[in-house]
Amino acid sequence: MKQTDPVAAGPLAGIRVLDLTRLLPGPVATMHLAEMGAEVVKIEDPGAGDYARSMGPVRNEVTQFFVAVNRGKRMLRLDLKDARQRDELLAMVERADVLVESFRPGVMERLGLGWEALRARNPKLVMCAISGYGQDGPFAHLAGHDINYIGYAGMLAENAGPDGTPALPNLQVGDLLGGAQSALEGILAALVAVKMGGPGRFVDISMTDAVLAHNIMPLVAVNNAEAKAPGRDLLTGGVPCYNVYRTLDGRFMAVGALELKFWQQCCDVLGRPDLASRHWQLGQEVGGADALAVKAELDAIFGAAPLAHWTEKFAAHDCCVSPVLHCAEALRHPLFQARRMVAQAEHPTEGAHWALAHPVKFSF
Predict the structure, then answer these.
(1) pTM
(2) What is the mean pLDDT of residues 233-249?
(3) Is 347 part of the annotated catalytic residue set?
């Protein structure tokens, strides 16, 4: 048999991962491990399996949700309440490098598959447990979803318009930043420690903790005792140079001209050089009357022409002004096509569909 080049196969070639997770955070973390070359075995119960299989329209056997987050994995069904099948998993643990689970704290112990039992079978194992509120603390055994995690962590309150009503983001910050990315970080760090001769480790991921740990700008505001009203901070709508503007056809342009040089160029493109001096770096109060007045002027300017007009007009000027794309448009955009971030893929039961590539590019 021809040997596979471990470098060409990906930096994690040879790493074996057992994936006991469901829904979004864990499956995305293990999918990224697979994209980096790891061998991932997804283990589901013999019944309904991963809830993602039936969340949304089902074509043939599974949903696009399930397909999107489980690429590159081998599927296996095991009833972990059955002693014989539990022993089968334990035998797999002996040959594995990583096990990832997302049950509520205590479930793995009740199954006889807790950290002590697993590391007794494999002292080099990295076990990662992803939960809403962590393995200890007053909320450890409570249920939750993304909306709860970002609510507790102070992020949802900041994602609000001028009337203060929080807007629900369609990027699941708690699940993806808090769960998937933090799990990846912990797993890879623990794997490095093992490869350097250390013991296996238990990685405790609280999605709520991880959101709080990245809530940087609100923390700065608290420490400076200068919290602004909803939608009135520097990065939430309080300055005209960092805002979104509705176009004539009901679309939006994103103006990110946060630095003075970009704002000056933006004003030139808009034909309003007189606005160039009205910028927060030149003393304009963030969220103040002048900032809101300038925003109102830009509302009128952008509202006079459609998105295509403004996209073309700003294309030749590097000043951080861009169209707000729908997902279907982003998939076809030259930016992501050139970066090989999207492709048409075939699934055994779902057929042709869009697939997203791993965002980290490695040299070979």
Answers:
(1) 0.92
(2) 97
(3) no
